[in-house]
Amino acid sequence: MAPDEEPPNGGYGWVCTVAGAVSIAHSWGFNSAYAVFLAYYLDNGSFKGASQLDYAFVGSLSLTATCMVSPIATAVTHRFGIRKTMLIGTILETASLLCASAASRIWHLFLTQGVLFGVGMGMLFIPVASVVPQWFTTKRSLAAGISVSGAGIGGLVYSLATEAAIRNLGLAWTFRVLGILAFTVNTTCVLLIKDRNHRRSNRACQHNQERTDKSKPNVAMDLGLFRNGNFLLLIGFGVFTIFGYFILIFSLAHYGTEIGLTPSHASLISALDSVGRVTIAGVTTFLAGVICLSVWVNAQNFGVLIFFAIAAGLVAGNFWATIAPLVAEVLGIEKVPSGMNLVWLSIVVPSTFSQPIALVLTEATGSFLASQLFVGFMYIAASVCLGWLFLRTRLRTRVGPV
């Protein structure tokens, strides 16, 4: 490898990492704030003729669109670079929020706060995820943790800010303010981030043509990976976790109002929940399930719900920080792009139907208990997948392939 190809393991990479974290805060953080929007919609019946299930599908559609567009975002990033892909995401996200401010029918929200926002979020999130490996070697985990933390910080800030904005400015102007912030902050992040790999590739395109050709399969979706039992366990981990995760983050604000908390207290609960390898991921996932089953079902006042939100926030979102390293460990670094594309597509169904399932369970039973139990058991099932993966990998190291 030529000297200029060696990652500097820091330097300007830290600027890219922080810029990536800020961008994630203004995409995933905004998405976490949908818990506050959902509580407002459900309490006020904001759109004539819309049912509770309709409102649940708005948030679900944004997650579905993010997962569905992820392979496209990967390919666009590979072809055109991080900056251009993020700029597309910035424009789409901004347009979604500004258009949502003019929504007068529920299907307007489906298209704006749902699909369009999700596509923009995916076009922002996927490029950011590819920044860290370009600049770091031994410090990749630290840098990755900093970048992913933007989702928790953004969720904390914008869950509180959204509730205050809706209360003082109204729904339409809340969307407009968020749209202006999305454009200003994400554009700044795009200008700060340097696509080191893409620039180097452009300078040495002819010299690296053979390497580029060999790397193309990494971007595609290799369906043969589904024959890998360990990878299927990772898929199970993802599916079960996402079923529980999005119910958790989207339901807490509504649950808070249901037990008599004020909208400000309910938004604080949602905000605190947003803060956040095989063995560690499995243990934290199991703990998330136990906390849901033991604490959330008994949370009937502000203090207990605060404790639950903080405890769950520390462990419930571990999927996002651990899935890429787990895929690399199971498949090898060269198959990470293909494996991650399949992971994103595999969580489309739970992303789409998790919150609607929660609302149906709540309506059918007349309480949140069924939804709470569902979330807890989903996390337990996800931890079983990782426990099984741990046993398989440990057995492989002792007796050979299984």
TrEMBL record:
InterPro entries in alphabetical order: MFS (IPR011701), MFS_trans_sf (IPR036259), Proton-linked_MCT (IPR050327)
For this UniProt record, the keywords arranged alphabetically read as follows: Membrane, Transmembrane, Transmembrane helix
Q: Where in the cell is it found?
A: Membrane
Principal cellular location given in the protein's record: membrane
Read off the Pfam families from this record.
MFS_1
Q: Topology versus the membrane, per the UniProt entry?
A: Multi-pass membrane protein
Any transmembrane segments, and where?
12-41, 53-73, 115-136, 142-161, 173-193, 231-253, 274-296, 302-321, 368-391
Q: According to its UniProt record, which protein family does this protein belong to?
A: Belongs to the major facilitator superfamily. Monocarboxylate porter (TC 2.A.1.13) family.
What is the protein's given name? Major facilitator superfamily domain-containing protein
Q: Which organism is it from?
A: Aspergillus keveii
